[in-house]
């Protein structure tokens, strides 16, 4: 607002300077040199005021720019402050010890998975091979109870007792 008021004042001074210059010319034509000289001194003073006004306007414009830039800086600082608070909250949730523990657990899990992958890929060590063979021998040495096999030869044909309707054929019974 002050800048705008100074600009209006500057316009008024410029109009006055033009009028006084024209009036000074007219006074010189009329031979009133003293009055023309006094009017030119007044004009010179107003020109100095005009220069001061221009400097004040320039200062005000710089101040407005500084204020606008400071407002931008304040927004940046506020953003940094909010970001810092967010980081601090995240750090409270996740401590260094917790991160180290998680990384350790992850490394253990990766190592365990690598061992499983090696076993599945068939890259067993000699110790693993020996342990597997021992386990296989132990399983095969366990007595498995099987039913007794009859010592008599099986009859070639099953005697038909009585004809029953819809009775399945013996070949189908044995197959199922």
TrEMBL record:
It is found in: Endosome membrane. Residues 10-70 form a coiled coil. Residues 143-176 are annotated as: Disordered. GO terms for biological process: late endosome to vacuole transport via multivesicular body sorting pathway; protein transport; vesicle budding from membrane. InterPro entries: Snf7_fam (IPR005024). Keywords: Coiled coil, Endosome, Membrane, Protein transport, Transport. Pfam families: Snf7. GO terms for cellular component: ESCRT III complex; multivesicular body. It comes from the Eukaryota. Belongs to the SNF7 family. This is CHMP6 protein. It comes from Nyctibius bracteatus. The lineage of its organism: Eukaryota, Metazoa, Chordata, Craniata, Vertebrata.
């Amino acid at each position: 607002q002050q800048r705008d008021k100074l600009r209006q004042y500057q316009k008024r001074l410029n109009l006055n300077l033009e009028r006084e210059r024209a009036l000074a010319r007219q006074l010189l034509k009329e031979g009133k040199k003293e009055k023309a000289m006094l009017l030119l001194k007044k004009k010179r003073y107003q020109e100095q005021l005009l220069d001061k006004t221009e400097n004040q306007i320039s200062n005000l414009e710089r101040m407005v720019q500084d204020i606008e830039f400071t407002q931008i800086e304040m927004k940046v600082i506020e953003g940094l402050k909010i970001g810092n608070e967010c980081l601090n909250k995240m750090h409270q949730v996740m401590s260094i010890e917790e991160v180290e523990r998680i990384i350790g657990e992850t490394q253990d899990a990766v190592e365990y998975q690598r061992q499983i992958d090696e076993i599945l890929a068939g890259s067993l060590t000699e110790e693993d091979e020996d342990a597997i063979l021992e386990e296989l021998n132990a399983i095969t040495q366990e007595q498995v109870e099987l039913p007794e096999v009859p010592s008599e030869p099986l009859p070639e044909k099953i005697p038909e007792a009585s004809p029953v309707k819809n009775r399945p054929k013996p070949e189908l019974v044995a197959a199922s």
